[in-house]
Amino acid sequence: MKYEWRKKEKELYIPKRKPELVTIPEQYFFSIGGKGNPNEQEFAEKIGVLYSLAYAVRMMPKQGETPDGYFEYTVYPLEGVWDLTEAGRKLNTLDKEELLYTIMIRQPDFVTKEVVERAFEHVEKKKPHPFLNEAKFGTYEDGLTVQMLHVGPYDDEPQSFQLMKEFTENNNLERISLQHREIYLSDFRKVEPAKLKTVLRYKVKAIE
């Protein structure tokens, strides 16, 4: 039976439309970083590189290679960790050109360094791209976080972040940094803005 993250990991990927406190364990990701407006072509091309790598792993058995511990699964959703440059933090309004991002796609636990190397080789051969050399594989562990499901346009996210801020303050917690994570449950190319579903998260710590 195919492993479905939507069903097996609901606490991580299908939160409620109100803030909650969760602990995110260490996870494996393909990732690629950048700076600037996510509406520009470079951002879209980097997303394409990540999906090429993710599907290279997913489809390995059909290429005659089955990694140890492999199981059939649904490819995880695109995620993005967002921050601002020093100049961007000094502005009163958001300048998307000052955004810093690391976009990523989670990988199953069976993915090893050898599997990663084979994935890169497959993409380089089948679908080479100048941004491929910027992609990396590694682990991330967010730990204690506040998260909630945001439904609607990306530009309306400040409303949800305000709810998260109130939850954080009311539960004796402190946000660690301005950096936050977004998990894109909807394909913005196919879903109208009002129905977009995005998981919002940021790291917190208890106030002593």
UniProtKB/TrEMBL annotation:
It holds the Pfam family GyrI-like. It comes from the Bacteria. InterPro entries: GyrI-like (IPR029442), GyrI-like_CCH_Lin2189-like (IPR008319), Reg_factor_effector_dom_sf (IPR011256). Residues 18-199 form the GyrI-like small molecule binding domain. This is GyrI-like small molecule binding domain-containing protein. It comes from Peribacillus muralis. The lineage of its organism: Bacteria, Bacillati, Bacillota, Bacilli, Bacillales.
